[in-house]
Amino acid sequence: MTLERPTQDPTTQPNGSLLWIKDPAGIHTSSRDNAYASRGLVVDSGTGVITEMVGAGSEPTRYDRVFDAAAHVVLPGLINTHHHFYQTLTRAWAPVADAELFPWLQGLYPVWARLTPDALESAVTVAVAELLLSGCTTAADHHYVFPAGMEESVDIEVDVVQRLGARAMLTRGSMSLGQDDGGLPPQSTVQDHDTILADSQRVVEKYHQGGEDARIRVALAPCSPFSVTRELMRDTAALATDLDVRLHTHLAETIDEEDFCRERFGLRTVDYLESVGWLSSRTWLGHAIHLDDSEIARLGAAGVGVAHCATSNMRLGSGTCRALELEEAGSPVGLGVDGSASNDGSNMIEEVRAALNIQRLSAGPSRVPVSRALNWATCGSAGALGWDNIGVLEPGARADLAMFTRDELRFAGSHDPVASLVLCGAHRADRVMVDGRWVVEGGSLPGVDLERVIARQGEQARLLMRDESNPAVLG
Predict the structure, then answer these.
(1) What CATH number does residue 70 fall under?
(2) Do 20 and 119 fall within a single domain?
(3) Fewer beta carbons below 10 Å: N end or C end of the chain?
(4) Where is the Amidohydrolase-related domain (predicted)?
């Protein structure tokens, strides 16, 4: 493992906060010019920002310590724009392993209705740990299941994210349209309108950080057109404007959803979105697959962001997001792993490869170079979340880095260091930095007993799956 070592340069302070990530094997900055960073970058571990990019033939203006990055490929920390942390408890469940979205949801809603605080804490720990180990430094989670006893779900998520040292956009999701009123989810998983809005305001006021050094931000996120009322969508948009936070929901994921909107509201999905006050740059959408040309143009003109969830879309057979057209129309496009029960994983560097390959199917390699897929996972994702100072490596940006080695068999015979991470299938980062501090070292999470985490998750998953009428059923 490559270790930090004090430099002997007389202009430096061995105990200072400025760390030169020196001479990486490759670097992708997500900026307009990668060349100027060929000798690496300097991060200030005190302020958590990048202070300098170091070009060919140069040395930093000032640095205190050196990290020899000759064995590493350096990327901006990857950013996950759409996830459901709690779903790590229901991965690869046999009854829905081969289902499309609506039957998949209908099979899992009763299971998720049995969530407990201990189960959620375990699930979030697993999800965030898995993301960090894949090079992801910022994650947006969409938590919308609040059965009785789970009123402080967002609070649990905040505690875990802070403990593991990640950055997060946590959304206060909601479901208010149960089966009794024509919605998809069972009544045991929905809340009433006033309860949802009151708690939405509570978590924003308690946890949302608006400054440049923010580690936790909060958005408001009614689940989908088929699980919330029109009134809740409209009132949530108004509350988000009052509180100056962002909005998130699922939209146009499947044809079933399109049919539901037509039957219930008499509108296509984007028309519905506009009718409830969501067609604005405050909004980013999960999936956004089934759109026509005019709808793509409208989303782009409004600056609505999109979370492209390639693996989940393939897994559920939902379709393919028209990511290139959305981006070219003006929508910020990022990547999301989606729920760990529709992806069955929480790995962001693997998601880059999935997005690259599925988009090349229709657009071809020349329109979807490796750099474009990496930008979706970094600066594109930051744009979708409206988070200005992450997702790039440049002076003044937060010092969020993902560093990969290429010493596995899968890289043997590979050439371009950056392209090889995507094309050869990198899956685990060697080092990850958030705000100038290492949160992954040597492919491990310092201070985290992963064996214990895995064992606890297995126990919680078994408890969640136990059917009261047949305690032996695990799925």
Answers:
(1) 2.30.40.10
(2) no
(3) N
(4) 73-439
Is the pLDDT reported for residue 6 higher than 90? Answer: no
Residue 340 — very low, low, confident or very high, per pLDDT cuts 50/70/90? confident
**Would 445 be classed as within a structural domain?**
no
pLDDT in tens, 401-437: 999 999 999 999 999 999 999 999 999 999 999 999 9
| Residue 447 within any structural domain of the chain | no
Report phi then psi at 308, rounded to 5: -85, 120
Position of tokens 């060919």? 56
Which two structure tokens, joined as six digits, stand for 404? 């990969």
The encoded tokens of residue 459 equal 């126990």
Backbone angles phi, psi at 120, to 5 degrees: -65, -40
Rounded CA separation 354/323 (Å): 13
CA atoms within 13 Å, Cβ hemisphere of 12: 21
pLDDT, position 90? 97
Neighbour order of strands in the sheet with 401-405:
26-27, 72-76, 401-405, 431-434, 437-440
How far is CA 305 from each of CA 136, 246, 350, 356, 379, rounded to the nearest angstrom?
19, 11, 21, 19, 12
Q: Are residues 175 and 285 in the same domain?
A: yes
CATH number at residue 306: 3.20.20.140
Give me the count of residues in the chain: 475
88 φ/ψ sector (left φ>0, alpha ψ -120 to 50, else beta)? alpha
| DSSP strands (E only) in 292-390 | 305-308, 333-335
Identify whether 335 is part of a domain: yes
Residue 23's contacts (CB-CB under 8 Å, 6 or more residues apart) are 39, 40, 68, 69, 70
Angstrom distance (rounded) from CA 232 to CA 241: 14
Give the pair of three-digit tokens for residue 12.
Answer: 């430096």
> What is the pLDDT at residue 1?
36
Residue given tokens 């349209």 in the structure block? 177
Q: 71 and 147 share a domain?
A: no
**Predicted pLDDT at 15:** 64
Q: What is the pLDDT of residues 91-126, one digit of tens each?
A: 999 999 999 999 999 999 999 999 999 999 999 999
254 contacts: CB under 8 Å, gap ≥ 6: 100, 101, 102, 289, 290, 316, 318, 319
Asked if 107 contacts 99 with a C-beta cutoff of 8 angstroms, the reply is: yes
At 65, list the tokens: 């310590």
H/E stretch holding 352: helix 348-363
Q: Please give the Cα distance from 448 to 429 (Å, whole number).
A: 16
Determine if the pTM surpasses 0.85.
yes
Whole-angstrom Cα distance, residue 73 to residue 67? 13
Task: State how far the Cα of 127 lies from the Cα of 86, in Å rounded to an integer.
Answer: 8
As for how many domains the chain has, the answer is 2
In three-state secondary structure terms, 387 is coil
Task: Please list the residues that pair with 219 across neighbouring strands.
Answer: 171
User: CB under 8 Å to 371, separation ≥6 — which residues?
Assistant: 28, 418
